[in-house]
Task: inverse folding
């Protein structure tokens, strides 16, 4: 697809649903509703919040309560959504979330929104925080409908689903057949990209690193620097913990149950009835996060960290995910 | 309790009365709120002072004078549940910034006398330093939505939930560019308990910690070394830390001379 056809491509997408894409806000980017192709920033580095926010909302009401009488699910009308411009890491992160939220028992709130979302990926270049290549998540094999590989003056459009297939069939006037030269260009660009990664994580032993090197002083050094702000959890595309609370109205008759994103850096995350906390210190929580992110999702065989670099880029204390793990190896 | 109403008192110690003002300001809800309450005393709304027993006592202000101390002890005796509202009652308020300084010197520099006109205790204490407190709602002033949630829980006999996450969590949820990461500002959000929806960072101003530290959790040493690395001077950081939280253990330690 020639870049000059992007406008028409975008207009066609708008007919399929509300289009959301990365938009520049100051120095940062955010997935936001877009009305015109000019607002879309396809050459962004990363958004602060991942696309997860469309499927598990940071804060949402899930039940209506009638005190003493019961409750009623809050069911949302599915709204067609086109998510345009996801990087490979974020697509792989969605696969991890899918495997968690769509496994039995399925999370209906998630399922409805996810089924109504068309995912369109876009190729990217790594910056100083990206390490998806180390994690093997730098390429999206599945988990999207279409993927746009930028080739200078055009995009090579890769199809990832039957829905994607029918979308491009309806666009035959703007998306032509790729040529042999296009594939050669793609190969060259992919090779060039692969050589651009500066952050390399040593991944041997990774799933066992916290257990086997549990006593390393390095954990203490970094957890002393950590201010427990929770940012690394909130920006992570694979963090999936939430907390559930209830709120009752002043009439004392009605209320709602809400769920909101949680963070394992917060005290109440591991607090259980009776006041026992199985991760009482910051050190415990710090190690815990690395343990979680270093393991492998048994359903997709994808790592729980997709190397998007958000936790490093947005940590106020400047704690870099890769530097911590490499330091455990004695590499930094 | 009388009927289905709970008997409550709103008592002021030393503070600006901003917490109670905020409660009285929620005009659209006030009638509904007072339907649930039998208010025996409300310092800001009426000058009536009674020493009645109440189910719940709401207290604002720090324990600063001998009178505060006596009144507070009486309130504790007369109530079942005692709730400290706002930064003054929870942490001693901005006045507690003076923690570590000599009260006599202060008296001298402001009033040019060493006489103790106000039977000042020499420091501004949090309510919990003097009597047992059941619940503490932080804020300078409190957020009324949080007050209502607390009130409803207390009326229903449910253990209230308090936020234990910092302002940064709310920054992230609103996708506010981080003032520390992007601009190296001396933001206290990481150690300050959330609930204001990151009001200041949203308006591009660093958090000055008005909601007080995340209890038992705030990593003061980490915050300090993080800001030193950003080029701030130790004294500049300490001056910020002491503004609303001079009596938090790790900050008080920094203030000891
Ligand atoms: S742990 Fe960090 S790098 Fe890995 S997926 Fe989460 S935010 Fe991205
Ligand atoms: S973002 Fe950094 S400072 Fe905040 S909790 Fe994570 S590691 Fe700690
Ligand atoms: S601006 Fe302040 S409150 Fe917000 S994330 Fe950064 S450090 Fe935390
Ligand atoms: S951002 Fe900080 S200073 Fe501003 S209202 Fe919230 S707690 Fe107070």
Result:
């Amino acid at each position: 697809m020639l870049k000059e056809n992007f406008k028409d491509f975008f207009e066609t997408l708008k007919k399929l649903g509300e289009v959301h894409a990365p938009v520049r806000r100051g120095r940062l980017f955010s997935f936001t509703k877009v009305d015109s192709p000019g607002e879309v920033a396809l050459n962004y580095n990363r958004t602060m919040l991942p696309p997860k926010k469309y499927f598990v909302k940071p804060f949402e009401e899930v039940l209506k309560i009638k005190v003493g009488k019961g409750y009623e699910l809050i069911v949302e009308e599915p709204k067609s959504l086109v998510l345009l411009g996801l990087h490979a890491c974020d697509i792989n992160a969605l696969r991890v979330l899918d495997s968690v939220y769509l496994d039995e028992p399925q999370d209906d709130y998630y399922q409805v929104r996810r089924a109504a979302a068309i995912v369109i990926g876009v190729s990217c270049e790594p910056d100083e925080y990206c390490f998806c290549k180390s994690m093997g998540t730098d390429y999206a094999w599945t988990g999207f409908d279409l993927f746009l590989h930028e080739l200078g003056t055009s995009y090579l459009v890769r199809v990832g689903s039957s829905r994607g297939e029918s979308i491009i069939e309806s666009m035959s006037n703007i998306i032509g057949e790729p040529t042999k030269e296009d594939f050669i260009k793609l190969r060259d660009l992919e090779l060039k990209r692969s050589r651009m990664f500066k952050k390399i994580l040593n991944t041997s032993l990774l799933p066992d690193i916290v257990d086997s090197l549990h006593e390393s002083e390095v954990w203490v050094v970094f957890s002393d620097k950590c201010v427990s702000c929770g940012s690394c959890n909130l920006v992570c595309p694979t963090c999936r913990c939430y907390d559930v609370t209830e709120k009752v109205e002043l009439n004392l008759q009605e209320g709602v149950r809400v769920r909101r994103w949680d963070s394992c850096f917060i005290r109440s995350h591991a607090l259980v009835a009776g006041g026992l906390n199985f991760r009482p210190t910051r050190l415990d929580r710090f190690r815990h996060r690395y343990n979680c992110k270093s393991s492998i999702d048994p359903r997709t065989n994808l790592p729980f960290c997709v190397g998007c670099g958000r936790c490093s880029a947005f940590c106020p204390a400047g704690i870099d995910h890769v530097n911590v793990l490499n330091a455990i190896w004695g590499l930094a | 309790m009388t009927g289905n109403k709970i008997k409550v008192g709103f008592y002021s110690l030393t503070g600006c009365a901003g917490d109670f003002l905020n409660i009285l300001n929620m005009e659209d809800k006030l009638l509904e709120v007072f339907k649930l309450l039998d208010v025996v005393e409300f310092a800001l709304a009426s000058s009536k002072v009674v020493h009645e027993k109440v189910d719940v006592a709401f207290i604002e202000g720090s324990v600063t004078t001998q009178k505060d101390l006596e009144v507070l002890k009486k309130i504790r005796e007369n109530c079942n549940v005692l709730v400290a509202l706002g930064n003054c009652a929870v942490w001693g308020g901005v006045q507690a910034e003076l923690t570590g300084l000599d009260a006599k010197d202060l008296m001298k520099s402001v009033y040019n006398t060493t006489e103790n006109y106000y039977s000042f205790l020499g420091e501004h204490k949090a309510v919990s330093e003097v009597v047992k407190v059941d619940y503490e709602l932080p804020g300078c002033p409190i957020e009324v939505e949080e007050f209502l949630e607390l009130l409803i829980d207390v009326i229903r006999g449910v253990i209230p939930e308090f936020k234990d996450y910092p302002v940064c969590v709310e920054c992230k949820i609103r996708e506010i560019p981080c003032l520390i990461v992007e601009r190296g500002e001396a933001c206290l959000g990481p150690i300050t308990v959330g609930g204001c929806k990151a009001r200041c960072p949203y308006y591009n101003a660093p958090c000055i910690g008005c909601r007080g530290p995340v209890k038992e959790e705030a990593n003061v040493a980490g915050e300090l070394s993080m800001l030193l690395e950003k080029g701030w001077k130790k004294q500049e950081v300490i001056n910020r830390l002491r503004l609303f939280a001079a009596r938090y253990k790790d900050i008080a330690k920094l203030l000891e001379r």
